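Morning run. Coffee first, then this:
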Amino acid sequence: MARTADPERAAARREAIMRAAIALFAERGFESTSAAEIAKAAGLSSGSVFYYFADKRAVFRALFERDLPAARELVARHATGADPVASLLAMVDVLAADAMDPLAPGIMVELVRQVDKDPELAQLIAETAATQHAGFAALVERGISDGSIDPELDPGEAAQWIQVAIDGAFLNADPDHDPRPMLRRMITRFLSRPCDHAGDHA
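And here it is:
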C-alpha cells in the first residue's frame, strides 16, 4: 500500500511546488526567486524542489506543460461545431479565461523574458501556439466556405491576429475585469463580412 501512495504524494508535492512557484515568479520574477524560497512557500524542506524537478527552469517550464495537451483537446472539441464562428469564439473564451487570474500579467512578462533562455520551453510554447493557430485557421477557413466569415481574410493570418488579441488580454489583464466580452466583440467584427455591418455608420 505504501508504494501505491508514493506517486500520489509526489504528484501532490509537485503541484504544491508549482503553485508556490507561480506566485513567486509572478511577483518577484524568475531570476529573483530561489528554489529554497519556492520550497518554503510550498511548506517543504529547502532541498525538496530538486527532488521533484531537475532545476529551477524545469519548475518554470512545468507551469506551461499542461497547455499543449489542453490546446489539442480544445481544438478537437470545437473542430466540428456546426457554427464555425461560435466554435471559434468558444475557443477564445476558454483561452482568455485565465487572464482574470491576478498572477497572469506577471507570469506573461516573465515568460517573455525567459522563453529565449530555455530551448525546451520555447519549443513547448511554439507547439502550443501552433496547435491553437491551426485550430483557429481551420475554423476561419470553414467560416469562409459557409459564408459566415469575410472571404477576403487569409485563414492563417486571421488566426494569428486572433492569437495576438488573446495575448494582449493577458498582458493588460485586470483581475476585476473580464476581457472576454470585448474580445468576442472585436473578433466577431474582425471576421464578419463587410456587408454584415455596412450600415453601422449610416
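Residues 1-5 have pLDDT under 50 and may be disordered. Good start to the day.
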